[in-house]
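Record 1 of the preview.
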Amino acid sequence: MRFIIYLALTALLAGCLRPCYSSARPSLSESKSPSKTKSGFAIFSGKVVRVIDGDTIVVLVDKKEIKVRLYGIDAPEKGQPFGTQAKKTLSDLIFGKEVHCVQTDVDFFGRSICKVFLSELLELDGGDMNLNMLSSGMAWHYKKYSKDPTYARAEQIAREEIKAGLWADKNPVAPWDWRKNKKGKSKAKSKGSDKVGLNYWLNTDGNIRHKESCRWFKKTKQGRMSKPDEGKPCKVCGG
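->
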């Protein structure tokens, strides 16, 4: 009964999560295969066979693996401070266990965005694994995609009152900022690596390569920077 009430309240508080999922609790004695609700979203249960990181898991449903991204939270990435701890925390909570997934969306990568509940705790408080990750200080409330006040409050308590998990860090970096910074550095590195070894000038008209000290370096009508193994060496500079 608590679970039914929880789903109904969640739908109302979250503005029906575009669109609302059914508030009726499916019977776990029925098929575990994803079943469509009136909103078109799926409700399914299965065994967690892999924990990818602190907010992504793989659930085995009727011999089919479904990649699930936990709704409303964003955990530290691999290589980011607390990334390993976040993965371990989620793994300790649900790896190898039966979970109940309420899908709210499907993301760009084809992952099911779900509220994940531990099946054995469906009728009890504490069954919401997304909420557990926030309460333990192992994830941010992903406010860009979730307006859930319960999640917002859980993060606030972990951050301001308990200093749990990653909130013990004086300057924690949000995963979305970390990803953005990493992407920027990767592009800069890639751009720089493209120029590595381009210390010669190739006269593309005659396919002649010139050293930087050569009088013809960048002086030909046609040409481009090149590597030392491109074209034929200049007879003057030995390029």
